[in-house]
Design a protein that fits this description.
- The protein is mostly helical and 442 residues long.
- The protein has three domains: 2-90, Fumarase C, Chain B, domain 1 (Orthogonal Bundle), CATH 1.10.275; 95-343, Fumarase/aspartase (Central domain) (Fumarase C, Chain A, domain 2, Up-down Bundle), CATH 1.20.200.10; 351-429, Ribonucleotide Reductase Protein R1, domain 1 (Orthogonal Bundle), CATH 1.10.40.30.
- The protein has 18 helices and six strands.
- A two-stranded antiparallel ribbon has the order 1-2. The chain has a two-stranded parallel ribbon with strand order 3-4. It has a two-stranded antiparallel sheet with strand order 5-6.
- The longest helix is centred in the first third of the chain and has 37 residues, at 94-130.
- The model has no long low-confidence stretch (mean pLDDT 96).
Amino acid sequence: MQDFEQFIGSFSFDNRLSEVDIIASIAHAKMLVKANIISINDGNKIISGLNSILKDLQAGWLLPQEEDVHYAIERELIHRIGEVGGKMHTARSRNDQIATDLRIYIKQEIDTIKDIINSFQKVLIKKAEENIDVVMPGFTHLQPAQPILAAHHLLAYVWMLDRDKQRLLDCYKRTNILPLGSAALAGTSFPIDRSFTAKLLGFDSVSENSLDAVSDRDFAIEFVYCISMISLHLTRFCEEIILWMNPEFAYISLDDKFTSGSSIMPQKRNPDCAEVIRGKSGRVFGDLLALLTIVKSLPLAYNRDLQEDKPPVFDACDNIKMSLDVMVEMIKTLKFIKENTLKSTEKGFMAATELADYLAKQGVPFRTAHGIVKDLLFYCQKNHKTLNELSLEEYNKFSSIFKQDIFGYLDSKNIANMKTSYGATSKKSIILQMKNIKRTLK
Ligand code: ARG
């Protein structure tokens, strides 16, 4: 049973919260002084002791192992300043302490993740601007559908990231509530001033129900859900990068730093970074499920199961930050091979919808126009011809409405740029779209 202490404890993972824990304890000690619960003199000893531990931790010194980070810091404080250090734990419990620490940690991480998302959005917008004239196939069901501008495709991800950021900000609001002062579960008979502590720690408000405050982890679950959604969005982009790198597509190239060769097949360039980011989503989604399961069915109030919440939160957080960082650097090096993307739009009859719209604009009911173009495509396939290779006479076999100008409707770039509705793929619509998204970055 030699590892029992380690099994039951959480120090091996929650010591990551040591700086946060000290910051919360300093605020608590200040409040105890202000509320005349401890003397100024004792308060000052506690605060300077905590500051000295903080300084040492920042210099790389390690706390001696204890059951958890709270005990470790309290023992060290008593070791440094004597028995008076024991006054720090007046009018609180480790239950409200850990709930507070985790909230502070998550608030800090939300700020960091938000900043990385911002830089990612800026990189994507810059890429979109640089490639504003690149035409590529747009797919549905991964089948050639209609030509689009590459910028439009890139900006689609910028909007997803915008929602990811909004979700995080929303989660921040619910995380920004101070549980400290709830003590073990029922509050305390000491005349504490919770609002004062909240102000010192930068919390918006204090929790209203002590039972809820010590046992609730929905802010953490919500945070990891937000991370999961970011991760999910990254997997979609990575999947496309992987496809676009495939020589069958050959739409893009990436800097060699983000790909690797095969130990056996000399010709290979594998999109490893995109694959790893895609794979990390498995861990992140697992973290979310772990948290849901840990909290499920727990009776009020605190239960020790809750200490298992930290590893999934840390894991999700570390992985999303790393994934986003790598993604930003990788996308900076993405180059469209525009001859290939253009050539690809000329395959697969992607002008078909435009032809049907051409007829519909002349009064043919769209459903009828759809049928005419379908017959036309069948004819092309049978005769091994593209839409460009047909003569006007051949077009007229299917409808007399087709005129010479029909050939102007077959050019991929024209097709994309004719789509000028709000939110559409034309250059004109995209310029407006960019203006709108840039406004959200300010
Ligand atoms: N290490 C614990 C956690 O992470 C702190 C609270 C422990 N409370 C208790 N009553 N045992 O949740």
